[in-house]
């Protein structure tokens, strides 16, 4: 390798994704010296820690490994820039068990190769030249397959294109092996590995992506100062999400010292130091809604940050970067003076290619709730008047025009405020089967139809028929007292089989009645569609919370 430095900065990356180092070594260091160093630095509490140097497997970008075999090589266009840094990458794993030789060994080595490739691309501004090498512990068939995977995967990269990565593959690679078992494993794994480079686009579906600095990220500018993106992931999740280091590179490149990240995920977090500490969490559950108080806190925080410097930018993300992100981005746009529908449409246009941004009805409902809480007497920022919690009693649930179902299991849950934290976990108020009432006098819906049928002589005759669907009342044995943010979930049975759910706030219930058509319910599955007739709807009947009335005080048939 031309231009090798007198010393090498070596980072040891373990198979679990954690790092040791970097540490500087003489360029003339032997393999034994490196291995002994790995063993001495390995955390003693690590699971499956290697006991001897024979337990180590190394993939390296460098030239100092002895008795190694070259799989392939990448070369950076910066190789002729003086002062480039040569970096070595070491991956550690256990040798395969006897019963796992063959496919397991090949799969393991390909995953190590992909990990190394990602590591090289991450640091492409510092790499002069890189060679992937393996040090023994693989049979000939595995080695040959690995070379062919390397040769075939690199030219097929479309995510991003090889030219945009600043890397290219060597053409000096041998042809495929003649071993049929190895060929079968090769093609299976080649297909698997190739998909890793397309999987991020598959996961992002119709969300707009942004190509910047050679990176292809699930990220969109909603306005010049508001970005929406998916979760910045590390380790294996970076295969299908935005890699953390790429997101950081782009933000440092475009908005250095002027960006702030808002993380909406409750299910996963990361160290704020990745973004220089400028991270604020507003966590709530996936496919659900936040409290109006949390929406207020985010809008005020974002407005304060953007107002403090005209260069400041805010990045908002959840896991996929669509539903929860869209709710909060749209809420902030409403906070700046847009109507709820206008804000939701702007987000849909800027974030997606099919103009379907926030698609969960409850999330859209809460953007409208937020708009009703705002007034603009003196411009922006507006006055925020979140309604006080309104206690209600859930008396009855009525479902119109259903078929092929006798009972429904219903869970009523309420957001529970925990002192000292923003996240409001759900607390179940009721879990019970709702009972069908047959004698309350609700008229069944009968749908009449006719069609033409041709007889054996070729004559058409009109056939008439009808399809009778039922409408049922479901009532609770005891009064259900509710207040604030609620979620009512409907199940086909008490274990699994969710049909749909709806989230709402009791302060916005008009005339003690809530009505939901099937398009206004969340996550309506195929089973729910199969039980719904053309006039299907769900009604929730409420009453005032009368403290003088007992638990069984609600007896009205309404």
UniProtKB/TrEMBL annotation:
Pinpoint the C2 tensin-type domain residues: 405-545
User: What CDD domains does the annotation carry?
Assistant: PTP_PTEN (cd14509), Ubl_MUBs_plant (cd01814)
Alphabetical list of InterPro entries matching this protein: C2_domain_sf, Dual-spec_lipid-protein_phosph, Prot-tyrosine_phosphatase-like, PTP_PTEN, Tensin_C2-dom, Tensin_phosphatase, Tyr_Pase_AS, Tyr_Pase_dom
Keywords tagged on the record: Hydrolase, Lipid metabolism, Protein phosphatase
Signal sequence span is: none
Q: Name one GO biological process term.
A: phosphatidylinositol dephosphorylation
The UniProt GO MF terms for this protein read: phosphatidylinositol-3,4,5-trisphosphate 3-phosphatase activity; protein tyrosine phosphatase activity
Q: Where is the Phosphatase tensin-type domain?
A: 208-377
| Domain Tyrosine specific protein phosphatases span(s) in chain numbering | 289-351
A Pfam family hit: Tc-R-P
May I have one GO cellular component term? cytosol
| Cross-referenced PANTHER family | PHOSPHATASE WITH HOMOLOGY TO TENSIN, PHOSPHATIDYLINOSITOL 3,4,5-TRISPHOSPHATE 3-PHOSPHATASE TPTE2-RELATED
Task: Please report which protein family the annotation says this sequence is part of.
Answer: Belongs to the PTEN phosphatase protein family.
What protein name applies here?
Calcium/lipid-binding (CaLB) phosphatase
- The organism is Artemisia annua
């Amino acid at each position: 390798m031309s231009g090798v430095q007198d010393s090498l900065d070596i980072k040891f990356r373990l198979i679990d994704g954690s790092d040791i180092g970097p540490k500087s070594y003489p360029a003339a260091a032997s393999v034994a010296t490196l291995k002994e160093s790995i063993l001495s630095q390995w955390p003693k509490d690590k699971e499956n820690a290697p006991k001897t140097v024979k337990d180590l497997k190394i993939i390296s970008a460098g030239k100092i490994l002895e008795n190694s075999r070259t799989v392939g090589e990448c070369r950076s266009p910066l190789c002729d820039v003086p002062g480039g840094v040569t970096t070595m990458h070491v991956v550690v794993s256990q040798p395969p068990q006897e019963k796992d030789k063959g496919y397991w060994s090949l799969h393991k080595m390909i995953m190590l190769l992909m990990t190394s490739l990602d590591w090289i691309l991450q640091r492409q501004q510092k790499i002069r030249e890189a060679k992937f090498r393996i040090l023994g512990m693989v049979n000939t068939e595995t080695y040959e397959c690995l070379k062919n995977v390397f040769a075939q995967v690199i030219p097929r990269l479309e995510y991003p294109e090889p030219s945009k990565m600043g890397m290219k593959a060597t053409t000096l690679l041998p042809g495929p092996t003649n071993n049929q078992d190895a060929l079968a494993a090769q093609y299976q794994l080649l297909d698997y590995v190739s998909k890793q480079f397309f999987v991020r686009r598959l996961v992002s579906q119709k969300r707009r992506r942004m190509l910047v600095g050679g990176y292809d990220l699930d990220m969109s500018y909603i306005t010049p100062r508001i970005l929406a993106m998916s979760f910045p992931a590390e380790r294996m999740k970076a295969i299908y999400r935005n890699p953390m280091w790429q997101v950081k590179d782009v933000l440092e490149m475009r908005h250095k010292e002027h960006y702030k990240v808002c993380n909406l995920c409750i299910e996963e977090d990361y160290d704020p130091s990745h973004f220089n500490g400028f991270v604020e969490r507003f966590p709530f559950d996936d496919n659900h809604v936040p409290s109006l108080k949390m929406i207020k806190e985010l809008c005020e925080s974002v407005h304060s940050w953007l107002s403090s410097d005209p260069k400041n930018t805010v990045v908002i993300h959840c896991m996929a970067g669509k539903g929860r992100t869209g709710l909060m981005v749209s809420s902030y746009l409403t906070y700046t003076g847009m109507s709820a529908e206008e804000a939701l449409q702007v987000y849909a246009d800027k974030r997606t290619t099919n103009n379907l941004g926030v698609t969960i009805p409850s999330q859209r409902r809460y953007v409208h709730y937020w708009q009703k809480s705002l007034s603009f007497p003196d411009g922006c920022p507006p006055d925020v008047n979140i309604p006080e919690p309104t206690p209600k009693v859930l008396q009855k649930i009525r479902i119109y025009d259903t078929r092929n179902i006798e009972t429904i299991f219903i869970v009523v849950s309420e957001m529970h405020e925990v002192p000292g934290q923003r996240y409001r976990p759900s607390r179940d108020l009721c879990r019970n089967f709702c009972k069908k009432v047959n004698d309350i006098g609700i008229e069944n819906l009968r749908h009449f139809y006719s069609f033409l049928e041709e007889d054996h002589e070729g004559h058409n005759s009109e056939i008439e028929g009808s399809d009778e669907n039922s409408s049922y009342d479901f009532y609770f044995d005891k009064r259900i007292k509710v207040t604030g943010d609620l979620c009512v979930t409907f199940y086909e049975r008490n274990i699994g089989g969710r049909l749909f759910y709806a989230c709402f706030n009791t302060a916005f219930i008009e005339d003690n009645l809530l009505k939901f058509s099937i398009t206004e319910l969340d996550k309506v599955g195929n089973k729910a569609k199969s039980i719904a007739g053309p006039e299907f709807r769900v009604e929730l009947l409420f009453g005032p919370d009368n403290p003088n009335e007992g638990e069984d005080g609600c007896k009205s048939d309404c």
